[in-house]
User: Fold these one by one.
Assistant:
Number 1:
Amino acid sequence: MTKVITYGTYDLLHYGHIKLLERAKALGDYLIVGVTADDFDKTRGKINVQQTLMERIEGVRSTGLADEIIIEEYEGQKIDDIKRYGVDIFTVGSDWKGKFDYLNEYCKVVYLDRTQGISSSEIRAEKNELKIGLIGESPAVLEKFVSECNYVNGVEVVGLCTKNTSGLSQAVLDIPLITSDYSHLLERVDAVYVLSHPTKHYEHVKQALLAGKHVLCESPLTLKVSECEALFNLAEEKRLILSEAIKTAYSIAYNRMILLAKSGKIGDVVSVDANCTSLREIDYNDKKKLSLTWNSLTAWGPTAMLPIFQLLGTDYADKRIISRIGNEQYQFDEFTKV
């Protein structure tokens, strides 16, 4: 008996998936299909899979082509599976050609031609098209966000509102609309990513919500509790998404660390220290640039406090904030300890 194994996410199962499974089945007598686990998909960069693992497994099972269905959960599992199940042929689509040649040491590797014009990525993009605009003056963050959007199906960065284009990379300058008129930007987008100076966050977020746009905003969302509460109330009233852009909070490794600490496996957590540092030169004579530069507490405070609040809670008995102020006019703290 010839055993064949293949792997995939099988999100929104379509004709192309079925044809590939049929070809895989025809290569032998027994077909094993590996469906990728949710966490494993995220580590591979597939962050917008639409269906749950069980829905995707049921989709594969409903085709009647798989003799056995397994779950792929970690890097390197393919070798373990080939050995465990006595696999003779490993097969995947031709878009992976060459990627799995190393498996020839364990079994025969066959790359199958994919059905042209059909892909889950394209289906997801059509179902979830999102035009997003950016507002802010940070060249490094803008470039990073634009670059990362290329890996998310259905997301298109269509505009940037900024008052300073100096230092922007070509990738950012290639955005179709670059303007200093925020209202003009909001007319063109479904959602906006706010990375302007923290003193501008409240007005920029509020204007976007009033225009009916979803908002992703760099932390801190506002500099006052009352303003923060008002914005979330407004978003709820308008039935819009308002979220803070603390990417650390959504990191798989970070979340596993928090879960480990909360599980008690390392003992009772009685103290948490969190440090964040940026090494950079600040020119206090350049008033224009200084007015756009984030100080120590606004740049790193939310990220540093995140694990402390998650592990110890927010019902603290006392707080002290000690800062070294480098510029009184702009209240620019070079160092802060909370």
Note: Residues 3-121 form a domain with the Rossmann fold fold (CATH 3.40.50.620).
Number 2:
Amino acid sequence: MRNQSISVHFARAVLKNTVKVGLDPAEILRRNRISPRLLQEENARISIERFADLQVSTMRDMDDESLGYASRRLPLGCWSMMCYALIGSDTLGQALHRYCRFYQMFDLELEPELDVSQDRATLRLRQQRQSATIEPYMAELFLFNAHRLGSWLVQEHLSIQTVHLSYAMATAASDYRHMFLGHPVAFNQDECAVVMPSALLDKSIVQNEQSLRHFLRHPALLMLTQNYARSSWTSKVKTLLLRNMLSMPELPEVAAQLELHPQTLRRRLSGEGTTFKELKNQLRRDTALHYLGKQGLSIEEIAHRAGFSESSAFIRAFKSWTGVTPYSYRKGI
């Protein structure tokens, strides 16, 4: 789903090292239709499409796929070469071993490795030197890319038992959960790692060089928006709400469609770390951000598509989400 949004925290992380190499972050933001003012707002969000474009554009400007976070530059083309190196794998386990081996050849201070023991497979980032500092966004890039690439290779969301991050949470917990598809994320751990059932490593690769060529046209966007069939209650509720954005059903109606008592649905959503109200607000917010990036739609029409009957209510809600009005947001992009 491309009508999603992401915290500006991650946009700031993408741009963190641009000044060091003589680039103007404000110019990069404007070129990607993102207002520099948004990055000053703690709770602001941008559409997932704008973020994906920003990340790719910044990598190109820096000629560095690590965005300046790695101990040495990763020239443009490394990601494509890595993908071609593993696309001939028979199983997910073989592909992830090749993913790790590829980046180990660069002799980085932070290297991925796959450790398999009994019923667990752990893809961790190993520090080459104990004194090396783990940059949070570098760790997130490696782990996110490995998980989403693996999911694409087998065409299903890989189930994660837990994600370990060795640093403190820097933005809302929901953003990290979204990054790892709703799976639990633990902070201030001893290592940065993704832990999954080892049985997943036996899954067959279903992609080939032809599908890889399509994937490589915009891998950042595809990995951020990939949406394979999922059985979570959050996913089921979102699907029903998206079909009825204009009328936006209430909890009892959605529960009835899922053949559940409303209180049972509340408990199941709570068990997945969310609420019905939060899901409605997320969908309205992300739909609004998606359409504000498009030309030709009035604020009134966008409010209607986001499930608001009145523009005034939409404007108030939008300002609470991003810190600016929809008019200011659109003017900035």
Note: The chain has 16 helices and seven strands.
Number 3:
Amino acid sequence: MSAPMLPPQKQKQAADRDLAGRLARGIAALLGPDWHRLHYGVAVSGGPDSMALLWLMTSLLPGQVWAATVDHGLRKGSDDEARMVAGFCAREHIPHSTLAPPAPIIGSQQAAARAERYRLLEQWRAANALDHIVTAHHADDQLETIVMRLNRSSGVGGLAAIRAKNGLILRPLLDWRRSELVEVALDNDLPFVDDPSNSNDRFDRARLRHALRSQTALDPVAAAKSAAWLAEADEALDWAVERLIASWPDASDIAVIRDDGYPPEMFRRIVAQRLRANAPQLVLRGASLDGVIAAMHEGRRAMVGELLIDAVRGLEGTIWRISAAPRRKARK
């Protein structure tokens, strides 16, 4: 016998509960059983995905959710979008802030804007004593990132793509489709806008997004699961490397690099870890890291930023030492 059909409004309430429950399970998987005691800041651009996330979060945790919109001022109309979100939050009694960079964005526009966005959100989170920032990245975003990383010859860490948890940033929607979030926004009459830069072919991601929407061979949800497993593999490799280095007789000397015939991926991580220990701001990966390792194995001095790597005499090919490069004399 089929279940009795609910009246439309009760059907909608049951659907909303199911969606909120799904989000709750996603957050609990990231934070554990005390997730519901915490306070969250939701990053809301005004798009349908972030508006749906805000709606679900406030339905799930009323009184424990704040919202913030970052307006970089990079395009006409972005201030109107921020005001739309602020107006919605005022009507729903959700604390909201509009954040703006103190200076114009320079350099690679999308990369610089992303870095500034997370800096502003972290500053806002700390000022409001919130436990986590939550963003609306979803499975379609994850697939785009994976394909972009494939085109850049990324390894395990790169193909793990967008992490579900990165410090205090949570992304609990990575197994949701964008279409599901649009449906949440439409079903609940949420206001939203489409960022025109999402369809601007001047940007690599926008061109890729357009291509992926017209294909059916790649399943975004399956790709997101693969990325999650790759993230676990990446963490496992880092865990193994930390314990391997700890087993060295001179482990406490951060200038030492050893190679006892380790697999290439393990040795890459050893070199990267030791370089970061000496220069925490240093980021070296991919072809640049492989070039350094090739020089080491060929017995040549390798220079990385302000660091030098030299083989220990008599132990070439097995032990190297990191030292500070001599300062260049200022030109007169």
Note: The first strand starts at residue 40 and ends at 43.
